[in-house]
Structure formats: structure tokens, C-alpha cells
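ARCHIVE CARD
Drawer: 12
Card no.: 0347
Subject: one protein chain, sequence and derived structure
Cross-reference: see card 0346
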Amino acid sequence: MKNWAWALALGTLIAVGCGGGGSGNGNGNGNGNGNGNGNGGNAGNPYPTVNLSSTPRAQFTVLTGAGRAIGDPITAVFNRVYLRDPNTGDLYSTILNPARTVRLDNYTTQAIPLQLDPAVVGNGLTFTEVPIEIQSLTVQSQTGTLNFSNPGNAWVTDSINPAEIRVLPGRTTNITLKLNNTMFQEDDGVGGNGTYAWIPQSFYDANIPVAGTFQGEFADYVMFDISGVATRPLLPQAGTPASRLYVSGDRIALSTASPGEFSVLNDDTGTVGLEYIAGTWTNPQGSTPGQYRLNQPDPSQPIPNPTITIDTIVGTWTPRTTVLTSGTSNFEFVTFPQSSDSNVQACVAYVRNGTSITNMYVGEVNLLNGTLVIIPVGDLNPATTANGIVGTVSNFVDSTGTTVSNPNTQSAYASIRRGSFTLSGTLPTGFSSSGTFVVFRK
């Protein structure tokens, strides 16, 4: 499970400063808005409306290269990617025409989209296997080009690829697949023109050495323009105030105002606000959302050069004003499910003047314990939790306005669309001590 960069530090605030169950102001039981998004309308309602499509999407990002290229160059050819429905065993696949080819001994990145059936996914669906199918191999040897195809039609590896990949309607979940030439071993035949055998353990070690399963992560972000906020976090690379903040639910990112730095705050070390994943971003092109690219130094360079990079993931971002239609209140509170769809959700609370955000706090809510904690956006970097605010969440309702009582299962968390919040203590100008939060979910 991915956590926000400050999650460990915020736990202290929750334990020390948050007490009581708090019932909020009762606004969480409003009716649906009738336009199909199930989050309540903004006609007379104080809270914003979530505007998401019903289409759930998965994205396979194929990364090749093993840090070395021993032996003959090998190119893999595959013509579909798919996920298996854990309930029915049905396969959902994208037929690739033309087929994709990836050079296994080079460092390359390819993103392959996969659309799923909204009726099957419902509020969310967890895939427990990731089958990988490679149709053929092309090997460039000293004797020329050799083509190999598995006698069983394709190399299928699903028997060792357990997964915990959650897909939600209107969101994009990324699955990273690492492939390289060490995953195939030549089985020499007469004259050296044998076949190649798939090495499952090599694939397993490269892809799921720690968690024990393939893990998905949201690849789509919502962009919040924070240029109107007085105290903003510093960009990790440039060291200047960030103009934009991006939220996926799994992670947050900061960027410049114009295409340039895109830095994802990284929690892998548990160091708040100091570690980051570097990248860049570009503006939307026509109907295509804005894009970001995360990268790393190219390992093939004999002398490490940070200016020569390769992509590790390509994703999208959408402006807040496109996917969140403001209500009548100038203070808005929005939560974002993690890709694990657990009881913990990321959240943002902000004051707006028209479409301009003038103050923002970020943090997380716990639907099981009924607690929340937020910190000023400027405290992300340099990092501190000294100015945090604690509160409560309750009065949860689903898309029909029906109460969700005492949620303690994934299906219950997935059904919540709104609820009530309370904030304790002295609050910044424009913040409300109670109100309705909405969940960023179709």
C-alpha cells in the first residue's frame, strides 16, 4: 500500500490530538444530483460535485533492461496484455495491432492501456493475478536473425504472478512489468539453433521481491493550482515555491507553473518531504489530458549522468476545475481513495475565491476510526507537522444517500461518497469547523 509522504509523522498528531466521535453538521445525507455521478449536486449544496467517467482503466508499463546485456540481443514480441477476473476467471485483454516489440537487453519503456467493463468493476474490483503472454522471441546472433515461438503458442506465466491490483471506475491503475533477457535461457539444439525457456523465478524476483504480489498504483492525478496560496512548499529540485500540487490518492506531486519540474514526494524511506521521484510534465493537447513522466538516470551510461534519463512511468493529470465542480461554499474538503481502497484516504481542504485557491491543507482521513489530520500545504517541504489540525469524520452515505454505518470492510469503504467532518481548535481564515466532505470517486 502506498502512503502519503507525511503519513508516519501525522500518526502522532492523530494519537495525541484527536478525541471524540464528532457528528459534524449533518450535511452528509444530501440527495444525489441526478446526473449520474452519485456524489450529490452543487445546485444549492455547499460541497463540490465529482465529475468522472464510468470507465475503469488499467495501464501496463513495460520496463526492459537488467542492468547488463550478456549474450545475444533479444527482442520479445507480444500481442496482448490482460487481467483475469477473480470472480469468474474471465480474461480482459487488449489486442495489440500491430504487436508490441520490446528489446529485452536495452532500457526501454512502453505504456499499454487496458479498458475494463464498468458493469463488472462496479465500485471497484481487485485483480489477483497478472498473466503475462509473450508470443515470440527474436534473437540477433552471429549466425543471423533467429525467431523462436513457444510450442504451446505463447510463454504464459500467470501461475506465479499473484497480484493485488484494485481498479476503480473513472481512474487509471498502473501495473509495472519488468522484463529482461535474463528471464529467458537458451536451450541449445543441434548446431546451436535450439529454443529459449522461460525462467519464472527471474521474473518473480524482478517484479515482486518484497510485497509478494504485483501492486497497482494510480497513474492519474488531479492538479490543484496553489499559486494563490501565501506559503507554498518548495520544489525538491529547483528549491523555489511550487505553483501546483497534484493528488492521486497514493501519492502527491509538486510542479512548476509552466511545463518543467514534476516531483513526486516519495515515502519509501519514511523521510518526510526530503525524498522525491523526479520527472517532467506537459500541458493537455486537445482532448488528451496533461501528461507527466517520471524518470531515472540512464543505467546504460558508463559514467552516471543525471541529465541523461529514461522514463519509468508515464501518466496523466487533470485540472481540479474539470473534475470537481464547486458548490456554494468557499471551503471544500475532498478525500481521495488509495489504490488499495482501504479505510485510509488522502484528503485536501482548501479555501477558494472563485476558481483561485487561497489556502490549502493536506492530510488523510481514517474511515474506520473516524479521525482526520491535515497540515498546511507549505509544510510539505520543508517538512513539519507542528501546525497540524485534527478532527473527525462521520455520517457516511453512499451514492443513493443511504447511510453506511460503521464501515469496516473494503466494500463498505468503496461505497462511501460523502460524509461529515469536524475540525478542532483555532482554524485559519475561511476554514469551516464542520461541513460535508466528498470522496473523489465515480
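Annotation on reverse: The chain is about 5% helix and 45% strand. The longest strand covers residues 91-103.
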